Amino acid sequence: MDELNRDSVEAFKNKKKIPLVLVLDNVRSLNNVGSVFRTADAFMAEKVYLCGITGKPPHRDIEKTALGATESVDWEHVPDTLELVKRLQVDGFKVCAVEQAERSTMLHDFQPEPGQHYAFVLGNEVFGVEQDVVSTSDMVLEIPQFGTKHSLNISVATGVVVWDFLSKTLAQEA
């Protein structure tokens, strides 16, 4: 690990993060929760919100996939996803539900606004993002898929949308 020149948890916490938070809407799998933490750490997301039934640290199944990222990434449990979405909007976040829905924006067509903070809402493994949350969101982002399956695992979807956001944000700064 020394050769990788990784920051300590304390140094990581003090670094400037990308203008992005992740909102998990009733995610059942603790392994998926841990994977989202690890992705949030890898790409320096500001925070992870764990909503509704989403499991929260400390839990061995979360830690199994988070590999310590629950210590480096800020997180908060919020009982109601819709209330959080409304609060984030008041705080100036643009809320994007990641879902397949009418009038969604394909991820490759999404262009983040420079300086704008975003919240990406990712939903339950079976039911997706709650409809009232989708309806209240500022936009719906859809990951294009070309195979026979109609969805991605939430941890994979998180990695795809966060990397897309980060790469577009970095390109704007160049």
Please explain how this structure is put together.
With 174 residues, the chain is α/β, with parallel strands linked by helices. The chain has one domain (2-173): Alpha/beta knot (3-Layer(aba) Sandwich), CATH 3.40.1280.10. 38% of the residues lie in helices and 21% in strands. It contains 7 helices and 7 strands. The chain has helices at residues 9-14, 30-42, 60-66, 69-72, 81-90, 131-136, 154-173, and strands at residues 18-25, 45-51, 75-78, 94-98, 105-106, 118-123, 139-142. Strands 3-2-1-6-4-7-5 form a 7-stranded parallel beta sheet. α2 runs parallel beside α3 (60-66).
Spans of 5+ residues with little confidence (pLDDT < 50)? none
- Quaternary arrangement of the chains shown? single chain
Number of helices: 7
Strand content: 15-25%
Total number of domains: 1
**Helix amount, in percent?**
25-40%
| Biggest sheet overview | 7 strands, parallel
Shape: globular
How many angstroms separate the termini? Answer: 29 Å
Specify the structural class: alpha/beta
InterPro entries: Alpha/beta_knot_MTases (IPR029028), rRNA_MeTrfase_TrmH (IPR004441), SpoU_MeTrfase (IPR001537), tRNA_m1G_MTases_N (IPR029026)
Domain tRNA/rRNA methyltransferase SpoU type: 20-162
Pfam families: SpoU_methylase
Keywords: Methyltransferase, Transferase
